[in-house]
Specification:
Elements: H1 2-13, H2 15-24, E1 26-28, H3 37-57, H4 66-75, H5 80-107, H6 116-138, H7 143-157, H8 162-171, H9 178-210, H10 216-219, E2 228-230, H11 231-256, H12 282-294, H13 298-321, H14 328-354
Antiparallel strand pairs: 1-2
Helix pairs in contact: 3-5, 3-11, 4-5, 5-6, 5-11, 6-9, 7-8, 12-13, 12-14
């Protein structure tokens, strides 16, 4: 009976063709193969985000009752605290996985032809993930998230001409309030998923089309010296094992270190001491703070925005600079640039926390 059902489905969906494609597809195997799994780990945490987010939607109420609904989820609803903690920890682990995936792709030169669009769509996904984190941070509307969002929205507001209008549009007025929560909620659960899912599908299709890139050290080897394993079932089983490890790490963090809920936001109170954004925005926060001390007034903020914009453009254009035909010199300079960016992010992030 099972064979008959499979044959019936195969006749209509072409399962044998998909299975043949999966068995034919191979993944390079070498000493750097560990970094191939981080794209799948990022996808796993996104799926956890989607499932836990839907469960939170059943009880969350945006607007004036936002804090009370999160309080009920955390303290009154059975296992609500665990679902919320899982959602929050998965968000942070997803950002970690995406950053690791991006830098591993960079240092393995996997952005080179014909994978330029894979690099560009990956950067687009990273930016959407960062906005996901920023928009979701305000939704509990507790004291810390309120003032951190207020500080965060002052950065785009300092951009000449369009900055104040953009910040007012996002806030829904001149100040962060319940209308801001409603707009962030719509952005978080409707607009961003509508952008993220098609872009993710295109990115995954590009990965399937071009396959996994080999680092230059492996490409230099003779063809007969290169090793590979079938995607199905060998690599898929290893990928699922990494998902299982990620699930265990997430479960441990969510259960042992449940996500806290602070006091309700009060706009009339002064901001708590040491207010700061989430860790993945700490680097930008610290750079802007230092530039503000060196160049008081709007000059420091504008200089910081220009610095971030210029760096992002260079990061975006790296596939057009580091081309195989241009020789080892450009490849070396590109690697130095990546090391400089990585060191800058780590140092300024740690500096920001040390300066609190």
């Amino acid at each position: 009976m099972l064979h008959s059902v499979y044959s019936w489905v195969d006749e209509r969906l072409g399962l044998e063709e998909l299975l043949h494609f999966a068995q034919k597809k191979a993944v390079p195997e070498h000493r750097h193969s560990f970094w191939y799994y981080w794209g799948g780990i990022s996808l796993f945490f996104f799926l956890v985000q989607a499932v836990s987010g839907v469960l939170l939607l059943l009880y969350y109420r945006p607007g004036p009752d936002a804090y009370e609904s999160v309080r009920q989820i955390t303290y009154d609803i059975h296992f609500g605290w665990l679902i919320r903690s899982t959602h929050s920890w998965a968000a942070n682990l997803m950002v970690v996985a995406v950053f690791v995936h991006m830098f591993s792709v960079f240092f393995m030169k996997a952005y080179r032809s014909p994978r330029e669009f894979g690099w560009w769509t990956g950067l687009g996904l990273l930016m959407v993930v960062m906005v996901f984190g920023f928009s979701g941070y305000l939704l509990p509307m507790d004291e810390l998230s309120f003032f951190a969002t207020k500080v965060g929205l002052e950065i785009p507001a300092s951009t000449p001409i369009i900055g104040p209008r953009l910040a007012a549009l996002v806030r829904g007025g001149l100040e962060v309030n319940e209308f801001t929560v409603q707009r962030f909620f719509a952005l978080h659960v409707v607009v961003l998923p509508a952008l993220f899912i098609p872009l993710l599908g295109f990115h995954l299709w590009l990965v399937q089309k071009h396959g996994n890139a080999m680092p230059p050290s492996e490409e230099a080897k003779p063809v007969e010296a290169r090793r590979s394993i079938p995607f199905f079932p060998n690599f898929l089983m290893k990928d699922l094992a990494m998902w299982l490890i990620s699930l265990n790490v997430l479960a441990l963090l969510a259960a042992v270190f449940p996500w806290d809920l602070g006091q309700p936001a009060d706009p009339l109170k002064p901001a708590p001491t040491g207010i700061h954004p989430e860790w993945y925005f700490m680097s930008q926060f610290q750079v802007l703070k230092v530039l503000g001390q060196w160049f008081p007034g709007a000059a420091g903020e504008i200089l910081g925005i220009l610095l971030f914009t210029g760096g992002l453009i260079l990061w975006f254009l790296i596939p057009l600079y580091d081309v195989r035909q241009k020789g080892w010199r450009r490849a070396t300079y590109a690697t130095y640039f990546g090391l400089l960016v990585l060191a800058g992010l780590v140092i300024t992030t740690l500096w920001g926390y040390a300066a609190l």
